[in-house]
Amino acid sequence: MNHVHRVSVGIFAAICAVGSVSATELQLQPQITGFISNERITHLVPGGANAAREMEVSIALYDGSGKQVPLPGIPFIIEAYDGAAPDPALRTGRTEVTSNGLGQARVRLPLSACRGTGIQGPLLVHRTSNHPEYWDVTFVPHAKVRIIAAGRIATAHFVHVCRESYRGARP
Predict the structure, then answer these.
(1) DSSP labels for 3-17?
(2) CA–CA separation, 101 vs 34, rounded Å?
(3) Nearest-CA neighbor of 63 among 105, 29, 22?
(4) Any idea what the CATH number is for the domain that residue 101 is in?
(5) In this predicted model, what pLDDT tens digit does every residue of 152-169 receive, in sequence order?
(6) How many angstroms separate the CA atoms of 163 and 127, rounded?
(7) Residue 25 and residue 80: Cα distance in Å, rounded?
(8) CA distances from 9 to 22, 56, 75, 114 (A)
């Protein structure tokens, strides 16, 4: 192989490598890898994870092939909405965080009071046990968490608990 051929092969390989990096960057997709509420609520409303005043949200970046991307310094905007469609009037929480060296982040998302016309209840729910306890719960069944990063959006559903009232051992 002569020098000209080696140089052209090297340039072609470098262009392919740059092309694959920029294609991966364009395909960055944030994903919600988990969310949980450690609040002292019953967590009995069906339809998804329950949260009333706050939730902890875990996020990661993935490429177009579904592999996690260890890209630090990517800003995430995390928002919560009551209702089926994001509407600025129905936003119940917002925070921002930056990805760590693994392309991940975990943040506490504070939630405001329930808003909008999607509030349901009170619904009678109970714990199934030898001594059942009954609760009246008012909630928004179609609340969403939305993540915005790298120009892309990911969403997940949760149940926004507005109020719980203990009824005791009888319905």
Answers:
(1) HHHHHHHHHHHHHHH
(2) 19
(3) 29
(4) 2.60.40.2550
(5) 999 999 999 999 999 887
(6) 17
(7) 26
(8) 20, 50, 37, 61
> Considering only CA atoms, which of 110, 117, 99, 103 is closest in space to residue 145?
110
- What the block records as the tokens of 97 is 């965080």
DSSP character at residue 150: T
Distances (CA, A) of 112 to 10, 36, 47, 147, 164: 57, 16, 20, 18, 16
Is 105 in contact with 12 (CB distance < 8 Å)?
no
Is 0.90 topped by the overall pTM? no
For 99, the domain range is 3-168
For 19, phi then psi, to 5°, come to -60, -40
pLDDT in tens, 111-125: 999 987 789 999 999
* Residue 20, both tokens: 């694959």
User: CA 94, CA 81: separation in Å to the nearest integer?
Assistant: 9
**Strand 120-126 relative to strand 91-98: parallel, antiparallel, unpaired?**
unpaired
CA distances from 72 to 55, 105, 118 (A): 23, 10, 38
Question: How many structural domains is the chain composed of?
Answer: 1
First to last CA, the chain: 86
